[in-house]
Design goal:
Structural class of chain B: mainly alpha
Strand content of chain A: 15-25%
Distance between the termini of chain A: 132 Å
Largest sheet of chain A: 7 strands, mixed
Helix content of chain B: over 70%
Number of domains of chain A: 2
Number of helices of chain B: 2
Number of helices of chain A: 17
Oligomer: heterodimer
Distance between the termini of chain B: 130 Å
Structural class of chain A: alpha+beta
CATH superfamily of the largest domain in chain A: DD-peptidase/beta-lactamase superfamily
Largest sheet of chain B: none
Helix content of chain A: 25-40%
Largest interface: A-B, 32 and 25 residues
CATH topology of the largest domain in chain A: Beta-lactamase
Order of helices and strands of chain B: HH
Chain lengths: ~550, ~100
């Protein structure tokens, strides 16, 4: 009998150890797993999608906003009449019956049918009370002004993970700021799936995207778009671009290009229209470059406005190349004011030779030629200046009248703006401020890139450019009563080492009012057919816009 | 006598503290009971907020579309308005009447 007591005792101890080890296993070893299982039964992690920030023009109008759209999904297990559901959905969603039917697999609980459905279409479908049909609400990008400023804005596409991602223009450049931050929250429910109030539901706090406030004026942008469209039609051009900037702040007031696209339905357009030619296309500026070279030589003290050109009596020969004026008219002993007025190529060869290669490179670098301006838009490029040892005599001569040098329109606009701003070159910018989701507003300060020429030289150049408008080739289209500084440019298009004989790039750059400029504008028309000359095509577009802008700003004539 | 008074005070304090503990416990139980069902109302309120936010977004979409310059220009053209192409600059004062 004695052995029974120890036996029972050992048995009970073993039993206790067994229970304890089992408890240890579940409560210590498998604790995390059980906790997760329990949590998944009464709660779930919910992703909080941030709202993308809006883009507002200077008048506070959201030129890029968000709209509600819906994703229609099906639960095939709940569908009672598959054929009828397929028939109704295909007709309402403008889809083929086969594509809807192919998605309805009986072993699935959730299948996506179509996204981007509008609120009105959703309401129409909901009225039909189709079993198994459900909707998910999403925010998608919405551009109230349609294709206005499309290349400036960019568009919102999808990245590799299927998330919204800004591409091109502002949407691309400021994507991280606009996108915001995703948040996650744990939502608890009771046995019937009803939410339980909890004081610590938020796991990771997110935030909506910031709103961008632009220096772009919606009225000026709209005007530029309309006038560019009219100009292209009127002068039979293949395309064109316009940039308008405030020279004192560097604010871009408008930037329009054609052909363009609609950011809302970007996928329906050719990809070549997505890029912004004002910052991505390079061209030889031609005569619009002459004021830059002339200002450099005056600033270096090598010439004065009254300096006489002693090689301007006929074509100039440089390294075996004969350089002509655009109309083969020559003015012996012409002065520098008249060189710009007549857009005299031989006069500019004289100026370039006075300047020399080293000073030419030095001044062009000061004007930002060959460097990116740093504008806050995605996709800016800038071809570098040739290295010093690649400059030959003929390169120096042709650079004087804007050939053999390649730049982007934004480079020229920025450089030219410095002449309108007493020699101070401002960095061009599109966004002037941004507003965070919590309402705090952050102003982006203006930035001086550098001083190109002295204030005195800039003032001299203003007078030379006013004279060019008053007495130059484009005088027929000038605005009476206003002092406007400007210069035409008819540039040849280099193609495979030669110049295209079929067309030119016609441009006009200028600012007004000359004594206290409110805007600097560059108008470029590609291959105009009614006339190849800028004075007949780009110049009237420039003055047409300038007339409206002066009226818009309430600036009366000064003369 | 003094000792009895001190003991009495101790009892009163203990009873008072017990009373506080019991009333706080009851309060907590009531609060928790109330909160446990408040989730339903909170859920409903949240749904309403979401609904209003959706309606606001839809309305602002309609408002922005209607007030866009593109739309205004289209409507103006459809209504027969034409573009002003006769902007004049007056360089000198004009006489009240010009002799024919």
């Amino acid at each position: 009998m004695k052995w029974r007591y120890p036996f029972v005792f050992v048995f009970l101890v073993l039993l206790f150890v067994l229970v304890a080890s089992r408890l240890f296993y579940w409560q210590i070893v498998k604790a995390d797993m059980l906790s997760e299982m329990a949590q998944s039964q009464y709660g779930g992690l919910v992703k909080i999608e941030p709202k993308r920030g809006e883009i507002e023009t200077s008048d506070g109008f959201p030129i890029a906003a968000n709209k509600v759209s819906y994703l229609l999904y099906l639960n095939p297990t709940l569908i009672k009449d598959k054929d009828q559901t397929v028939l109704i959905l295909s007709s309402l969603l403008d889809m083929t019956k086969a594509s809807v039917s192919a998605e309805i697999l009986p072993d699935r609980l959730w299948v996506k049918i179509k996204s981007g459905i509008s609120a009105s279409d959703k309401a129409e479908i909901e009225k039909l009370n189709l079993p198994g049909v459900g909707f998910e609400e999403h925010y998608t990008r919405f551009y109230p002004e349609a294709s206005i400023a499309a290349q400036l804005l960019g568009f919102v596409g999808k990245n590799e993970e299927g998330q919204d991602s800004g591409s091109g223009g502002l949407e691309g450049f400021y994507d991280r700021l606009l996108r915001g931050k995703e948040g996650y929250s744990m939502e608890y429910s009771d046995a019937l799936g009803r939410p339980i109030l909890s004081n610590s539901t938020e796991v990771t706090s997110g935030s909506d995207g910031s709103n961008l406030i632009l220096g772009v004026d919606r009225s000026i942008q709209f005007l530029a778009e309309q006038k560019l469209k009219d100009g292209i039609e009127k002068y039979g051009a293949t395309g064109g671009t316009i940039g308008i900037m405030d020279p004192q702040t560097g604010n871009i007031l408008a930037m329009a290009s054609s052909p363009t696209f609609s950011p809302q339905t970007y996928f329906d357009f050719d990809q070549s229209t997505y890029t912004n030619p004002f910052i991505t296309d390079t061209y030889e500026p031609g005569s619009t470059f002459k004021p830059i070279v002339m200002a450099s030589a005056i600033d270096a003290g090598l010439i004065t406005p009254q300096t006489k050109c002693n090689i301007c009596g006929g074509p100039v020969s440089v390294s075996g190349y004969e350089l002509h004026t655009w109309n083969d008219q020559y003015y012996k002993d012409t002065n520098m004011i008249q060189v710009i007025q007549h857009s005299d190529n031989t006069g500019m060869v004289f100026v370039a030779q006075k300047l020399g290669v080293d000073r030419m490179i030095s001044y062009l670098t000061k004007f930002g030629i060959g460097q990116m301006t740093g504008i806050d838009l995605q996709g800016e490029i800038s071809p570098s200046l040739k290295p010093r040892n690649a400059w030959y005599d003929v390169d120096l001569a042709t650079t004087g009248f804007g050939q053999g040098v390649s730049i982007t329109p934004i480079e020229l606009l920025t450089a030219f703006s410095s002449l309108a701003n007493n020699g101070v070159m401002m960095q061009p910018r599109v966004v002037t401020a941004y507003e965070n989701a919590d309402g705090t507003r952050v102003e982006i300060p203006t930035k001086v890139i550098g001083n190109t020429v002295s204030e005195k030289t800039a003032k001299v150049m203003v007078e030379i450019l006013v004279n060019a408008v008053e007495k130059g080739e484009a005088q027929w289209t000038k605005l009476p009563g206003y002092r406007i500084a400007g210069k035409t440019g008819t540039a040849s298009i280099p193609v495979k080492g030669h110049y295209d004989q079929t067309g030119t790039i016609a441009s006009f750059i200028g600012f007004a009012p000359a004594d206290n400029p409110k805007f600097v504008m560059l108008v470029i028309l590609d291959k105009p057919t009614t006339s190849i000359y800028a004075a007949d095509t780009a110049a009237p577009v420039f003055f047409d816009i300038a007339k409206n802008l002066l009226n818009y700003y309430g600036i009366p004539p000064s003369e | 006598m003094k000792k009895i008074n001190v003991m009495k005070k101790g009892y009163i304090l203990i009873i008072f503290l017990l009373g506080v503990i019991i009333s706080l416990s009851i309060g907590k139980a009531i609060m928790q009971n109330t909160l446990s069902t408040s989730g339903i109302y909170v859920g409903e309120v949240q749904e309403q907020i979401n609904e209003y936010e959706t309606q606001n977004t839809i309305l602002s979409e309609q408002l922005l579309t209607a007030s866009s310059l593109t739309n205004i220009m289209e409507k103006a053209e459809a209504s027969g308005f034409t573009r002003e192409n006769t902007l004049m600059v007056l360089n000198a004062s004009r006489p009240l009447a010009i002799k024919p």
